[in-house]
């Protein structure tokens, strides 16, 4: 099958899924009667139920099982908080405008669409040109505004709607700005993520946790991003639900006591070395991905080997070391494993789930390691969960801005004499030299590591000045000996004071749910074979309705039995839908299959009923007074459908 046909099939499948979702009110465009607003969607009854079930399982899987501290912080955030975090200055995308109509487009999306369209639909594309376009797609995230503009002009890309020429790309801040209070003097923003609310509360959460590390805080809530040109349905929206975890840990000890519980899990991983070399994602046990196998281990084995047969073992270790140590630490690896379990238990296809490591150009300068859980759907591979070791950046940033130390303490059994690095910028001299950039130079100097600081000290003592790169200014500046004092002092300390590192798994709930819809959707022929029926194969865990109750015919006795069963289902906490319309049983089954309801109870007598399973269409006969407990047992995962098939007689319709 050629690329054009594959693209056509993907589009047809997506349209079938979206049409079903909108027709059955899983979600619809917001403000539909006013022609809607791009990037805003309403969840209907089944969509709300699926979302609620996903979030309930998230709480159980992470908050309860990991004993996390859950918080709920405001959506409106003062400007100073987001200034400290870097969002005010750097939370931008590059935008271009139609030079005649003023319509805005996201620049990288236009270039990405152009490259993909040519690769999929141009039969005359040369191998050399195809390789060039693939390279552009590979480095797209690393292109500067100037490089992006040059590519757009070079390929002759115009406004999609009007074919007018486009402006040069320029940054656009994605946050929704507002003001707090009627005066307009207190600027704020709708939060672009939930994480900052956790960071600013670290001191109180640390105290609540008995001043002990490690601990994790979690939050579920709405986030807002003023997307330039939202598209792809639920995948890129302007208001969305995030579920985020901030796991605070000692930077000197990122081991995890429960890592052994996930170490044997094997799934698709896409390390940065494989991406750069053009290799595909491969299955790697997470325990192997975290384990550090160094050259010394191999050399020790070689030197101690006297038997030729052990050479095979040595070669195996050398081979395994290629994918060993690709995940920075155990805690990061533990959460990658837990995210894999969460997604696959929801119903995500494990063969269309991979964990991709960020390339060097994607990584923030402070990050130790970052991985994305990407799920394949008709739009391609979509980032749905980010799992990052953000080091101590966030707590340090808020400490510097607020003046409140967001630190942890480790008491020593005996006092220790330690040598401490002291960096004292001379703010007056730096102010004279760097004017408005003084603060950024000061912060960069204070953030120096010991090795870099001592090198600068030696250079200043011998030459009187030193070259110093300031990342936030993206340039090298000259520091003179009168601008900073660097020394080491010996002190006796009773405790170690340090800024914790944070491991952050961040879940885009809407994206996960949309991918779940696609992974769960299929069609099958009707009984007569004259039409294709839509089915969502949701696991009972996330199904919007767990079962339906149908009287076989409109009969007062059967309807009374149906109502009694409904009351019993309510008592055991099972969601249900009762249908006494009298429509044919086949049509009623088809309607509920299209909603993803896993079980249907058909009342065809006053003493026993049939229970039908959605995907196999198998039926069993169960006594009326047992049926609620049987459905509860299977939907809660205590038993499988195969288990109950053994216990109850099958029924042929």
UniProtKB/TrEMBL annotation:
Q: What is its EC number?
A: 6.1.1.14
Q: Name one GO cellular component term.
A: mitochondrion
> Which GO MF terms does the UniProt record name?
ATP binding; glycine-tRNA ligase activity
Q: Which GO terms describe its biological process?
A: mitochondrial glycyl-tRNA aminoacylation
Q: In the UniProt record, does the keyword Protein biosynthesis occur? A: yes
What keyword terms does UniProt attach to this protein? Aminoacyl-tRNA synthetase, ATP-binding, Cytoplasm, Ligase, Nucleotide-binding, Protein biosynthesis
Please state where this protein is localized. Cytoplasm
Aminoacyl-transfer RNA synthetases class-II family profile domain mapped to chain residues: 15-525
The primary location reported for this protein is: cytoplasm
Q: What domain of life does the UniProt record list for this protein's source?
A: Eukaryota
Q: What class of enzyme is it?
A: ligase
Q: How does it assemble?
A: Homodimer.
Give the UniProt family note. Belongs to the class-II aminoacyl-tRNA synthetase family.
What name does this protein carry?
glycine--tRNA ligase
């Amino acid at each position: 099958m050629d690329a054009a046909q594959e693209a056509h099939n993907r589009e047809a499948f997506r349209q079938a899924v979206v049409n079903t979702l909108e027709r059955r009110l899983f979600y619809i465009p917001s403000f539909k009667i006013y022609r809607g607003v791009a990037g805003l969607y309403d969840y209907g009854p089944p969509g709300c139920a699926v979302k609620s079930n996903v979030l309930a399982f998230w709480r159980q899987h992470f908050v309860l099982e990991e004993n996390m501290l859950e918080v709920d912080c405001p959506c409106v955030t003062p400007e100073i908080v987001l200034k400290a975090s870097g969002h005010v200055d750097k939370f931008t995308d590059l935008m271009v405008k139609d030079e005649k109509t003023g319509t805005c487009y996201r620049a990288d999306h236009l270039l990405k669409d152009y490259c993909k369209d040519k690769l999929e639909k141009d039969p005359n594309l040369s191998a050399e040109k195809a390789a060039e376009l693939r390279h552009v797609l590979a480095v797209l995230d690393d292109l500067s505004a100037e490089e992006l503009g040059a590519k757009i002009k070079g390929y002759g890309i115009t406004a999609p709607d009007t074919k007018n020429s486009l402006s040069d790309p320029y940054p656009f801040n994605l946050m929704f700005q507002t003001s707090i209070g009627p005066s307009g003097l207190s600027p704020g923003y709708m939060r672009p993520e939930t994480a900052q609310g956790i960071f600013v509360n670290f001191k109180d959460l640390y105290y609540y946790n008995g001043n002990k590390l490690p601990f994790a805080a979690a939050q579920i809530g709405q986030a807002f991003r003023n997307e330039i040109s939202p598209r792809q349905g639920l995948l890129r929206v302007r208001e969305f639900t995030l579920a985020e975890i901030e796991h605070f840990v000692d930077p000197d000890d990122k081991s995890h006591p429960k890592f052994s519980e996930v170490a044997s899990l094997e799934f698709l991983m896409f390390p940065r070395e494989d991406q750069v070399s053009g290799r595909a994602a491969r299955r790697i046990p997470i325990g192997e991905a975290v384990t550090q196998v160094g050259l010394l281990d191999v050399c020790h084995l070689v030197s101690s080997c006297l038997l030729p047969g052990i050479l095979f073992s040595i070669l195996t270790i050398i081979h395994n070391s290629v994918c060993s140590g690709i995940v920075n630490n155990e805690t990061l690896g533990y959460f990658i494993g837990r995210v894999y379990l969460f997604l696959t238990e929801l119903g995500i296809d494990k063969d269309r789930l991979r964990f991709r490591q960020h390339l060097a150009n994607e990584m923030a300068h402070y990050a130790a390691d970052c991985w994305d859980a990407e799920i394949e759907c008709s739009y391609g591979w979509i980032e749905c969960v980010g799992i990052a070791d953000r080091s101590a950046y966030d707590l340090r940033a808020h400490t510097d801005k607020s003046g409140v130390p967001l630190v942890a303490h480790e008491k020593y059994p005996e006092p220790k004499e330690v040598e401490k690095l002291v960096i004292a910028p001379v703010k007056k001299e730096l102010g004279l030299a760097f004017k408005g950039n003084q603060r950024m130079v000061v912060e960069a100097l204070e953030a120096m590591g010991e090795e870099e600081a001592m090198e600068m000290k030696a250079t200043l003592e011998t030459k009187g000045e030193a070259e110093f790169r300031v990342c936030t200014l993206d340039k090298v500046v000259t520091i003179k000996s009168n601008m900073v004092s660097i020394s080491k002092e010996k002190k006796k300390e009773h405790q170690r004071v340090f800024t914790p590192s944070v491991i952050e798994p961040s879940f885009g709930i809407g994206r996960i749910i949309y991918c779940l819809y696609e992974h769960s959707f299929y069609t099958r022929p009707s009984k007569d074979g004259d039409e294709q029926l839509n089915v969502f194969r949701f696991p009972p865990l996330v199904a919007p309705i767990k079962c339906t109750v149908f009287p076989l015919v409109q009969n007062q006795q059967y309807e009374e039995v149906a109502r009694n069963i409904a009351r019993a289902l309510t008592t055991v906490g099972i969601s249900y839908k009762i249908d006494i319309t009298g429509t044919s049983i086949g049509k009623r089954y088809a309607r509920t299959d299209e909603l993803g309801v896993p079980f249907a109870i058909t009342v065809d007598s006053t003493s026993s009923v049939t229970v039908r399973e959605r995907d196999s269409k198998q039926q069993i006969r169960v006594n009326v007074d047992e049926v609620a407990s049987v459905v509860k047992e299977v939907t809660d995962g205590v038993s499988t459908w195969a288990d109950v098939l053994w216990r109850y007689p099958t029924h042929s319709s």
